[in-house]
Each structure stands twice: as C-alpha cells, then as structure tokens.
Sequence to fold (348 residues):
Amino acid sequence: MKIRSLLALAVCGLFVQALAQAQQSSTPAGSAPSSAPSSDAVRDALAKKEGDADNTTLLKETLTAVDKQYSLIRKGQVQVNYELGYTYIGQEKINTNLSSGQATLFSIENSNSHTITNTLMLDYGLRNNLTANVSMPFISRYADNAGYSGVSHTLGDLGLNVRWQPLEVKRDEPTFTLTGGVRLATGESPFKVDSEKGLATGSGINTFNVGANVTRIVDPVALFGSLNLGYGLKAKHLNQQLYNATLREVKPGASVGFGLGFAYALSYKITTSFSFQESISAGSTLSFDNANGARTQAKTQTQSAGILSIGLGYRFTPKTTVNVTVGAGLTAAAPNLALTMSVPLLLK
Fold:
C-alpha cells in the first residue's frame, strides 16, 4: 500500500509540474523568462527562409536580364545562355542629277535588311568577383537592294570578355562592375565581300573595349548606368574594288557609349525595364589606290546610334527567367527595330 501511495503521489507531482509549465508558456512575452523559447519559435517561423524571394532579389535578377554585366557567378560555376535577336534596317535613298539646272534621272532606291542572330554565351567564374565570357554569334542576314538581293549564313564576330567587381556588394550602396574585352573579326568583312554577290556579317575590324557599370537599388526600383570606350585596329591588305578605285586600308575611329535606365519588379514572376543607349563613333579613314596607282584617302563622318528599349522578364523557376526586349532606333545610324529574347540553358 505504501508503494502504491508513493507512485500515485509521484504521478500527481509530474502532472502538476507539466500543467504549471503549460500555463507559463501561455503567458505574454516578457512576463516570465520561460516565454523566451516560444517567442524565438515565432520569429523563426516568420523569418524569410532560404530560397524565398524579396524585392531586392527580384531587382537584382531584373538587372541580370537587362545586362549580363550586372551579375557575376560564383568561382568554378559555368553558365550557358542562348540569345535570339532580330534587327531591321530600312532606308530610302533619292538619286537625282541637278547639273543641268533641272532634276533628271530621278529615282527612289529602297534598301532593306533583316538580320537574325543566334548567340551562344558561355560564362565561367574565375573568382567570386571575376567572370570570363565567350560569345559566339551565328548570323543569317537577308537584304533587298539595288545591288544585291539574297541571304547569307555565317559566323559573326567572336567576343571574349571579362567582368570584375572590385568592391563587395553591400545593401543600400551602389554596385560597380568593370568590364573589358575584345571582338575578333571572324565574320564576313564588309571590306572584303563583293556587295553585288554577298552580305557582310561582321565588322571586319578587331576591336578592344573597356567600360564601367553602376547599379543602385532604391526599393522597389533599381537604377543603372554604363559607360564604355572602344578602339579598333586597322584593317590592312585589302583589295576591294569601289568606284574605279581599290580599297587598301581602313583605320576606324574611336567610339564612346553610355546608357542609363531603371528596372522594376511588378511581381514575384514578372519584371520590366526601360533603358536608353547611345554610341558615338568618330570618322574612319579609308585609303584607296586610284586608277593611276596613286594613294588617296577619304574620311567618313561621325556617326551616332541611339536606341530606346523596353524589356519584360518572366520567371518560370528560381533559376530560369525568359527575357524579351524591344528596341526602337532614335537616330539614322541605329536599327529601325531590334527584338531580343534570352534564355538560360545551363547553370552548374
């Protein structure tokens, strides 16, 4: 009997102790030290878990969609992207002769060009703040003008680039990215192709470029801007026939470009962006051998190309976002219409 009584008393004691602990845990926070584990559990439950998206994350992904230079991958990572681009250039030229005092030989010449570019881009993380990039464009170009009408399919100019972030990315502070690269003249050169038999798909000049990009997140908007400089090497040993003369050498002028815009996350899946880009190129110097064999030179005018772009991105998965950008040319040297779609293919 005594053993049974002791067991009963022990069970009652445990029950009373459990009831007292339950009552203490139900009291408001701060009334007793025992409430601390409960409030910590609530904070943990409400805290943002790994993988959850917020406005800052979405805006950074939007900047990646606008310009790959705003995002760097980790050391040792490989990322492959595919980009499909379309540009249209349409011009009307009026040919007339006023030497007699009256307009004679009057005609309107239409020149249209449609270009489809399939580009594969490979990124490799050399370091956490240093990324190398290789871009390989495959170009299909159709032209309809007085000299030639047809289609050309060939490799475009190969690009080799690096992106470097000298400073660690910090919240509420601007992020700077320095860029550099070279564009190799692997496409069909406009200084070698016969304008009556084919179309050029490259620049014909090896070009070096350096630049800087800056972005600042002002939640829920991200502002960004860029500045770049370009310098091209001479194209030598040419033998192109133009107007009873032979083109021998082309010395391109230096170029400067800048851009600015903003990005906005409409929701967790849809982002949009607006940007303006301007490129100013100094005149190029062309060297000719005329019919008598004498060397002459001519210089082209300075060109300015400005384009206004509107972008939209749709996020299918945390690692897959399809971006579409539509651009309209604002100057005579810019394409009338530019349409671009980019899709990530691989990230590992």
Summary: Helices lie at 2-25, 36-46, 55-66.
